[in-house]
Each structure stands twice: as C-alpha cells, then as structure tokens.
Write a structure and sequence with these properties.
The complex is a heterodimer of chains A (478) and B (96). Chain A is an alpha+beta fold. Chain A folds into 2 domains: 296 residues, Electron Transport, Fmn-binding Protein, Chain A (Pnp Oxidase, Chain A, Roll), CATH 2.30.110; 116 residues, UbiD C-terminal domain-like. Chain A has 13 helices and 21 strands. The longest helix of chain A is centred in the last third of the chain and has 20 residues. The two termini of chain A are 41 Å apart. The chains are: A alpha+beta (478), B mainly beta (96). Strand 14 of chain A pairs antiparallel with strand 6 of chain B, so a sheet runs across the interface.
Chain lengths: 478, 96
C-alpha cells in the first residue's frame, strides 16, 4: 500500500508497534536530538515528539522514519519481518517500472493548508531542532527532499541535502558541489548570476525520502522511482513562488532560491559517517520566499551519527542497488552488491561469479569513476552471501592476500568523499583521497588442484551425506 | 547579566586577542531565535578581565569543538548584512 504522507505512515507503524509517542515536553535544543540518537543506538522505535518547548501544541517532531529494516519493509508495504534480501529484491524489481506523478490542485493538497509569503516568513516559527552539540545551527532540513530543476536538460532532481537556519528568512545548506543539485547550481545558475529555485520538502511518504538518497543519474526524475516503489503515482502540487512541483501531502514546504553570489557559514554537522567531519564552510545560501504547511505540522528529522540510522539504512539499499546496476551495465559478472549499514556507504561488498585481481580492478574503477562515496570495496566469490557480514569477514580474514590482493587507487579532486573522517582536513576540503579495492577471491591463475576447500557443511561433505544428515536431523535429538 | 554568543574559527589562534574585527556570531539567548546568525563589528579578548564590559563569547573550532574557557566580546555594531559575498562553496577561511 502507498502512504499519502508521513501521517499515514506513522499510523502504519502504530499498528506494528514500531513508533512511540513521546508525550512529555522535550526541548528542540539538543534534547530531542539526544533522545533520538540514544534511541538509535539502542535499536529503538521511531519517535513522535508531541510537545516541543517554545512551540504551540500540535507542532511535532518525528525522528527515525526508516531507522530499521522493519520500518523500511513497512514503508514498502511488506511484512515487517521481511528479510533484507527480500527488501533488496522488491526494491530492485519495483524500480524497473517507473510511475509518472500526477498533479493535483486546490484544497486536496494538504501542504497548502497554511501559506506564509515574503515578509511574513519566519523560519523560527517551526521547531527545527538543534540536533547535536557543536552543530553550526538548527537543522530544518535533514530527513528532507530537496526539489530542483535543471532548465537545460529539463530534468527535476530530488536529493536529500541538509539545510540549517541562518536567520529568520535564510537557510544555509550543504548539497556538496558534486551532488546533482550542486552541479546544476554551479553549471546553470552561478555562471549566469541567477538565483536557483529550490523547494525543501519535509514530512512526506518516506519512500520519497528514500529515492532522494539514491543516485539515479542525471536526467532521471526521482519522483518516477518513488511512484515505482509506492506502485502508485506521487501526487504533486505547484509551489506558490516557483514552477517547482512538490509532494502535495507534505507537512512543510520551504520555497526559496539559492543565491549565486552570496554565501554564509554552514556546518559542521554530525553527519552520516558517524562524525562531525568536514568543518565549517561557505555554504549555499537560500533566501526563503514562502513556507506552506499542514496545520499542526510534523517536522521530520534525523539525529545522524554512528550507524545504524535512517541514512545508513536508506543508503544501504539505494546505493547498493544503484552500484549493482552500474556494474551490470559494464558487463561485469556481478551476483549482488551489499552496502552494510555499519559501513556508512564507505564500505561495500560485491559478489562476483568470476574473481581475480583484474576483475577487482575493473569493479573498483567503475565504482570510483565519477564520485567515490565508497572507498573500501570488498570483492568476494559467489559462494559468499554478501548480505551476511559474518561470511564476508571470514572471506576477508581467510582469502584476502594483503600484498597482491590490495589495490590502492588515488582519488584526484573532486572525486573523493568530503565527509570521510579518515581523510585529512586538506583532503576533505579538496575532495581528494584514496580508495582500497580488496580482493577476497581466488586468483584465476591458480590450478584448480591448489584451491583450498571450504570447510562448511555445504562444501566439504558429499551430497549424499548432506542429504542423509539433513533428512535425519530430528532423529539425532537436535 | 552578560549575554552569551558563540563563533566559529578555523584555529583558535586566528582570533586577535584584544582586536577589533567583523565577525559572524550566534546569539545564544534562550528562545526561538537562539542560534540565529548576526554579523557584527566587535572587540574580542581572551578573557573577561581584558574586556570588563564585554559579554561571553564561546569559541567553536571548525569541527564544532568548544574551547573550555570563553572569550569576551563587546559588540560595537550589528551589521545589516549577515551574509558574505562570493559564490556557494567559496571558502570563508584563509587556510585549513
């Protein structure tokens, strides 16, 4: 089933016991963030904070939309107990059939229940949380969908980018320079000294957030993939101050424009790799022209940090599937790609039908060709279940030859991930670094007779013994 | 009662002790406007003793760590524009 907005999703979580309503008043200033962070680290439910200090009754915060595979499964309409492999499979399958959005008008668009324009805009009217101590400011947009349009290619991008309150009417954000939004901004607007319209959408069907974390490639509208995952078109409505279209059942929509010639301090922020990494910098400055919102709005947030949280889970799925697609497009014999949430999109595991160091190099080159978010790429043979990190660690421990099985690839600016904590400040600032491709496959030039035999039930016993033992299992008193 | 502000610096030593400069600060007064930015012309010093009529200024490093002992700030003027000229991503800091 498809959810029209976050309220319907919260109702679904209610039925499965995956959300807790926090009735006690909490402070937007660090307390909501601290509760949410501790809750992630305890593997807890989604949290709806019903009373927020300094704000009217009804103004709420919601953290942890997709913070567990259970909640991801619920968002897809699957059984909450669906296995991670099943979630990947369904996601991959549904993505094959994009569904175009539909446009609705008037009162059916709930995000238009309240409209604040121009001089009346005051971002402080909403309980944007100060999430971590030491963040540069109150992050209004964390678990959001930022809508922008590429006028040259006539393509609408949805991305998940952070934006914080600078003052009553301005936000600063950090869509990285080589993100899709960053590229549209720097290629199409800054050279012409034109402001770039954006809309920051908060509180919508979490599958819309999920696709915003994905890299579908330039020219592909994420909204079509949200429709695919929902198996129902996303209903969109036009913004008040631009031609951008936004999900109609959103809680809050901030309409603004990124200024091409002004900037303001943005960051640091405790980001998805689990560290406050990249430092304060000149951010993208967004002048807010309008805010539209549902009555009693729910501001969705994510107290990002050490995994597992919504970001590491969403990226685990979207990045894994997108990398698999890219590798298959290059004709490589890939079985599966897994981005373990604990690896925070830095470490990925690739299963191959045929390994060898040359194959590992090809895989690494494809995955670091444009942007290298992942910089530790582990390649295993197809006898290893890539989704089972116990098996992956065993393959690394036993099959990886640190000498001949490691390729270190230098990443020239601006390919590297600016949020990688292990890079120096100079590397982070200049988006340069290095990646390691780790070969846990058997070398192709080894004679078959020399390849070690895996000592597992499935591999080291004759088939007839396996069948006998399996069939008789209950008779052994086990 | 003194007011409290914070500011972010590349390196703590970059801030001129006893100097006057333009500075982006965050107002830490409780309430909805806490953490809003202000661009000010101000005098700063490494202790209240050096700036007796100043308010409290907490220093944060580039990655957000707070210096244990606060500085002092005397705001001389709140500037109208709290933004900086330049394209997005142009860095505010002289060095990293």
């Amino acid at each position: 089933m498809a959810f029209n907005g976050i309220r319907e999703f919260i109702n679904a979580l209610e039925k499965t016991g995956d959300v807790v309503h926090v009735k006690k008043e909490v402070d937007w200033d660090l307390e909501a963030g601290a509760i949410s962070r501790r809750n992630y680290e305890m593997g807890g439910p989604a949290l709806l904070f019903e009373k927020v200090k300094d704000y009217p009754e009804g103004y709420r915060l919601f953290n942890g939309s997709l913070g567990t595979f259970r909640r991801v499964a619920i968002s897809l309409g699957l059984s909450p107990d669906a296995d991670v492999r099943e979630i990947y499979r369904v996601f991959e399958e549904r993505e094959q059939s994009p569904v175009k959005p539909i446009i609705i008008y008037g009162k059916k668009a709930e995000c238009k229940e309240n409209i604040v324009l121009g001089d009346d805009v005051d971002l402080n009217e909403f309980p944007a949380p100060m999430i971590h101590d030491g963040d540069q400011g109150r992050y209004f947009g964390t678990w959001d969908v930022v809508v922008s349009h590429d006028p040259e290619k006539n393509w609408t991008n949805w991305g998940m980018y952070r934006f914080m309150i600078h003052n009553e009417k301005m936000l600063t954000g950090y869509p990285t320079p080589h993100s899709h939004l960053g590229m549209i901004l720097m290629n199409q607007f800054v050279p012409k000294n034109k402001p770039m319209p954006i809309a920051i959408v908060i509180g919508t069907d979490p599958l819309c957030n999920m696709v915003a974390t994905a890299g579908y490639g330039i020219g592909r509208n994420e909204v079509d993939y949200a429709g695919a995952l929902r198996q129902k078109p996303v209903e969109l409505v036009k913004c008040e101050t631009s031609d951008l279209l936004v999900p109609a059942h959103s809680e809050i929509v901030i309409e603004g424009e990124i200024l091409p010639n002004r900037t303001a301090l943005e960051g640091p922020f405790g980001e998805y790799p689990g560290y406050r990494t990249e430092g304060a910098k000149a951010g993208t400055l967004c002048k807010v022209n309008a805010i539209t919102f549902r009555s009693n709005p729910i501001l969705t947030m994510i107290a990002l940090g050490v995994p597992v949280d919504d970001a590491s889970l969403a990226a685990a799925i979207t990045a894994g599937i997108s990398m698999k697609r890219r590798l298959l497009l290059h004709g490589l014999p890939i079985t599966d790609v897994y981005v373990p949430p604990e690896g925070v999109t830095h470490m990925i595991v690739v299963g191959v039908r045929q390994g060898g160091i040359d194959m590992v190099r090809k895989i690494g080159e494809v995955l670091t060709a444009r942007r290298a978010w992942a910089n530790k790429i582990v390649v295993v043979n197809d006898d290893v279940d890539v989704f089972d990190m116990g098996q992956v660690i065993h393959a690394m421990a036993s099959k990886w030859h640190p000498g001949r099985g490691t390729i270190i690839q230098t990443l020239a600016s601006p390919k590297a991930n600016t949020l990688t904590p292990g890079y120096s400040m100079e590397e982070r600032r200049n988006a340069k670094g290095a990646a390691a491709f780790i070969d846990c496959t058997w070398p192709l030039d080894w004679p078959e007779e020399h390849i070690p035999v895996k000592s597992s039930f499935k591999e080291i016993y004759p088939k007839e013994i396996q069948e006998k033992v399996t069939a008789s299992w209950g008779t052994y008193g086990l | 009662m003194t007011k409290e502000y914070s500011t972010t610096v590349n390196l703590y030593q970059d801030l001129p002790d006893g100097g006057e400069l333009e500075l982006l600060i965050k107002d830490l007064a409780p309430g909805r406007k806490k953490y809003n930015a202000k661009m000010v012309r101000a005098k700063v010093a490494s202790s209240r003793e050096k700036l007796p009529d100043g308010d409290t200024l907490w220093l944060r490093s580039m990655v957000g760590n707070k210096l244990a002992k606060p500085w002092a700030i005397k705001i001389l003027k709140i500037l109208e524009d709290d933004t900086m000229p330049g394209a997005p991503y142009s860095d505010m800091f002289q060095k990293t």
